[in-house]
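Sequence, please.
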C-alpha cells in the first residue's frame, strides 16, 4: 500500500512517499516546501488551509503522488503531554477521574472535552514509580487535517507528534532521544522498548538539557545506552555542544538507510544532505498501526 507522510511545522511542509511493489516498499519522494507565511496553528480552519494547501500543491506539481493514504506529524508543542503517579489498585474509572483532574489543574482555561486524549501506563519510569502518561491534542485541529485530506482525495490514517514519529526509526531498548525544532528541544527516555521519561527544554538554554542528559551518562548499566538526535531544523551545533560537554556520541536518525529507492526516485538535496531532518515525515509514512 502506497503511503504519504507529512511533517507540518510553522515554516514548512515536509513530505516522504513510499510505494509498494512486489511485496517490498520503495522510497519514491522526499521533498519540502516553505510556507508563504508563518503557519499559526490557532488560525481559523479556512486560513489554516489557505496556507497549507498552496505548499502541498507545489509539492505535487514537482512530483505527482501515487498514494491515496496520508499520515501527518505535528509539532510536539501542539500536544499537551504530562504524567502523574498512580496507585496500582486504582480502577479504570478512578484513573479517568484523576486524569481529568490533573488536566484541569495544569490547563485551567481548557476543557478536556475539546481534546482527543491518549493515555499510557508506564510501570518502569526514570523515577521508579508507576505513572500514567497523557497525550492530548485539540479535536478541532484533527478535524482540519481530516478535511484537508478529504479535499485532496486522500484518506487520513494517523496523526502524531513529530518526536514520536521520528522515534519509530530508533532502537528503544535503552536509549535517549532528542528532537530539535525552532521552539523547543524535547527529550524522550526509553527502556525495554517503552517510554519511561519525557522532558522539554528551551532551545536557547542548553545548560539544563546537558545537566539532565548528564544523569544518564553517569549511570552504571550492564548495557550501553544509545543517544539519538533528529529534528526539522539544522542541529549539528547542538549535537556537537552536547557531545563535547558530556564526552559521548550521539547518533543521527537517518530514515532512509534501510529502504531501497524506486526506479523513479530523484536523489535531491534533501535526500543527499538533509535526510536526518526528514525523520518525522519518514517515520509517519512507514507507520502501519
Amino acid at each position: 500500500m502506497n503511503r504519504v507522510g507529512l511533517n507540518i511545522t510553522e515554516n514548512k511542509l515536509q513530505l516522504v512517499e513510499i510505494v509498494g511493489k512486489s511485496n517490498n516498499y520503495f522510497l519514491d519522494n522526499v521533498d519540502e516546501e516553505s510556507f508563504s507565511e508563518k503557519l499559526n496553528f490557532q488560525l481559523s480552519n479556512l486560513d489554516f488551509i489557505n496556507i497549507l494547501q498552496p505548499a502541498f500543491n507545489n509539492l505535487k506539481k514537482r512530483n505527482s503522488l501515487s498514494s491515496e493514504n496520508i499520515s501527518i506529524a505535528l509539532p510536539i508543542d501542539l500536544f499537551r503531554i504530562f504524567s502523574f503517579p498512580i496507585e496500582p489498585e486504582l480502577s479504570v474509572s478512578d484513573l479517568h477521574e484523576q486524569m481529568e483532574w490533573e488536566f484541569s489543574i495544569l490547563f485551567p482555561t481548557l476543557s478536556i472535552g475539546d481534546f482527543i486524549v491518549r493515555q499510557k501506563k508506564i510501570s518502569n519510569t526514570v523515577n521508579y514509580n508507576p505513572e500514567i502518561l497523557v497525550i492530548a491534542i485539540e479535536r478541532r485541529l484533527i478535524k482540519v487535517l481530516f478535511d484537508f485530506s478529504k479535499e485532496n482525495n486522500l484518506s487520513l490514517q494517523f496523526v502524531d507528534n513529530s518526536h514520536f514519529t521520528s522515534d519509530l526509526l530508533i532502537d528503544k531498548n535503552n536509549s535517549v532521544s532528542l528532537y530539535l525544532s525552532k521552539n523547543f528541544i524535547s527529550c524522550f527516555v526509553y527502556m525495554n522498548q517503552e517510554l519511561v521519561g519525557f522532558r522539554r527544554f528551551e532551545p536557547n538554554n542548553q545548560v539544563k538539557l546537558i545537566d539532565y542528559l548528564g544523569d544518564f551518562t553517569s549511570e552504571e548499566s550492564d548495557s550501553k545506552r544509545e543517544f539519538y538526535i533528529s529534528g526539522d531544523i539544522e542541529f549539528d551545533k547542538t549535537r556537537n555542544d552536547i557531545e563535547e560537554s558530556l564526552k559521548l556520541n550521539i547518533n543521527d536518525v537517518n530514515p532512509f538507510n534501510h529502504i531501497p529507492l524506486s526506479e523513479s526516485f530523484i536523489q535531491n538535496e534533501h535526500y543527499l544532505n538533509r535526510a536526518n531532518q526528514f525523520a518525522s515525515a519518514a517515520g509517519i509514512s512507514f507507520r502501519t498501526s
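The chain has three domains: 3-76+139-167+255-286, 77-138, 171-252.
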